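Per your request, structure below.
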C-alpha cells in the first residue's frame, strides 16, 4: 500500500470508528495502531506470515542428583515490543528473551529442541557447556526434534542462543536467553541475600532486516526479567516492561541481580541509580569476586551477579549508563518500600 493510500485508509478507519460509536480520540489512536500493526505484519518473512504460535512452557525435569532433562521449542510468536509495535519474533518457547534455565554445577544436561517453525531450521548454542559445536549445536529442521547431552561444569551466568546461519538474524529476531549454573559451593555472600531477580538486556532492530541489524543502530534497547520460581514476574524484552512492573525490595534488603546482556551487538554499562554494587561476580563465577563497583560492563553475551543493599525507601532506576540506549528503552525500576510490597507510589525512570 502506498503512503497516501495508507494514510487515507487510516483516516477512513478512524472516521468509521467515530461515526459508528461516537468514541473519543483514543479510538482514533487505537485504529491507527491497528493499521500500523497490519502493515508491520504485511512485511513479514513470507512463510511466517500467518504463523503466531502460542508460548509453550519450558520443561525442566531433574532426573538424578547430577542430571537434568530440558525441553524447549523454537517457534514464531508475535510480541508487542513497544506500545503498538508488533514484532513477529523468532523465539525459544514463545518468549524473547527465552525462559531462564537454572541448573547446578556438575549437572549433565540432556537437551531437546522441538522446532515448531514450519519453514526454517534453528539450533541451540549454550555458553554454559563444553561441547563440540559441529555435533552438539547443529541445526534442527522444521517440524523436527533434536536431542543433545553435555556437561555444565562451570558455574556462572551464561547466554544461550540460536546458532543457525545467519546467526545475527536469529539472535536479533529474538532467539536468546540466560542459563544460570549455580556454583557447587555457592557464592560467599549467599547467606546475606534477601531477594534475587534476573535482568536481561537485548536490542531490537527493524523487523528481520539484516542490513539494519548489521549496519544500523538498534530501534529499541530493552530490559526484561525472567521468573526464577513460580509466581515471579516474567516479561518479554519490551519497552517499559520493568517500569510498568517494577521489581520490589524492602528497606535494608541485600538484593541480587543475575544480569545478562544478550546483545546481539551492543555493550551494556549496567548501573542502578542511588546505590553501588557491594559484591560483583563477573560472568557469575564466584572466583571473579569484585567489590564496590558503580557500573558493571557486560559485553555482548556477558553476564554477572551483582549485589547491593538498599538503605532508603524510594524508586531506584535501573539503566545502562549508555544513555542513548536508556533513551531507547533500557530503563527499569527497583521500588523499595517499608514492607517490600508495592505501595502504589510513582515509579521513577530515566
Ligand atoms: Cu534460530
Amino acid at each position: 500500500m502506498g503512503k497516501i493510500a495508507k494514510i487515507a485508509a487510516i483516516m477512513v478507519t478512524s472516521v468509521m470508528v467515530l461515526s459508528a460509536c461516537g468514541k473519543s480520540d483514543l479510538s482514533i489512536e487505537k485504529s491507527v495502531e491497528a493499521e500500523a500493526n497490519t502493515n508491520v505484519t504485511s512485511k513479514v518473512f513470507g512463510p511466517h506470515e500467518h504463523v503466531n504460535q502460542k508460548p509453550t512452557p519450558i520443561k525442566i525435569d531433574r532426573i538424578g542428583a547430577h542430571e537434568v532433562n530440558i525441553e524447549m521449542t523454537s517457534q514464531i510468536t508475535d510480541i508487542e515490543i513497544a506500545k503498538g509495535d508488533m514484532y513477529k519474533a523468532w523465539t525459544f518457547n514463545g518468549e524473547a528473551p527465552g525462559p531462564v534455565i537454572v541448573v547446578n554445577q556438575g549437572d549433565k544436561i540432556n537437551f531437546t529442541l522441538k522446532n515448531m517453525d514450519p519453514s526454517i531450521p534453528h539450533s541451540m548454542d549454550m555458553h554454559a557447556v563444553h561441547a563440540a559445536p559441529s555435533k552438539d549445536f547443529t541445526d534442527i529442521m522444521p517440524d523436527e526434534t533434536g536431542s543433545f547431552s553435555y556437561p555444565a561444569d562451570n558455574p556462572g551466568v551464561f547466554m544461550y542462543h540460536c546458532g543457525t546461519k545467519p546467526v545475527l538474524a536469529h539472535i536479533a529476531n529474538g532467539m536468546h536467553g540466560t542459563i544460570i549454573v549455580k556454583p557447587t559451593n555457592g557464592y560467599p555472600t549467599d547467606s546475606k541475600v534477601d531477594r534475587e531477580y534476573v535482568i536481561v538486556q537485548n536490542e531490537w532492530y527493524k523487523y528481520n532486516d539484516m542490513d539494519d541489524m548489521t549496519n544500523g543502530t538498534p530501534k529499541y534497547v530493552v530490559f526484561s526479567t525472567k521468573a526464577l520460581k513460580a509466581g515471579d514476574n516474567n516479561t518479554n524484552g519490551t519497552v517499559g516492561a520493568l517500569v510498568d512492573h517494577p521489581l520490589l525490595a524492602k528497606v535494608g534488603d541485600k538484593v541480587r541481580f543475575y544480569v545478562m546482556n544478550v546483545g546481539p551487538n551492543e555493550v551494556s554499562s549496567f548501573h542502578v541509580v542511588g546505590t553501588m554494587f557491594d559484591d560483583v561476580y563477573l560472568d557469575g563465577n564466584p572466583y571473579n569476586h569484585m567489590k564496590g563497583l558503580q557500573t558493571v560492563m557486560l559485553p555482548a553475551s556477558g553476564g554477572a551477579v551483582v549485589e547491593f543493599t538498599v538503605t532508603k525507601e524510594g524508586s531506584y532506576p535501573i539503566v545502562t549508563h549508555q544513555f542513548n540506549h536508556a533513551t531507547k528503552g533500557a530503563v527499569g525500576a527497583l521500588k523499595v518500600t517499608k514492607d517490600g510490597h508495592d505501595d502504589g507510589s510513582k515509579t521513577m525512570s530515566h
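The chain has seven helices and 20 strands.

Regards,
D.
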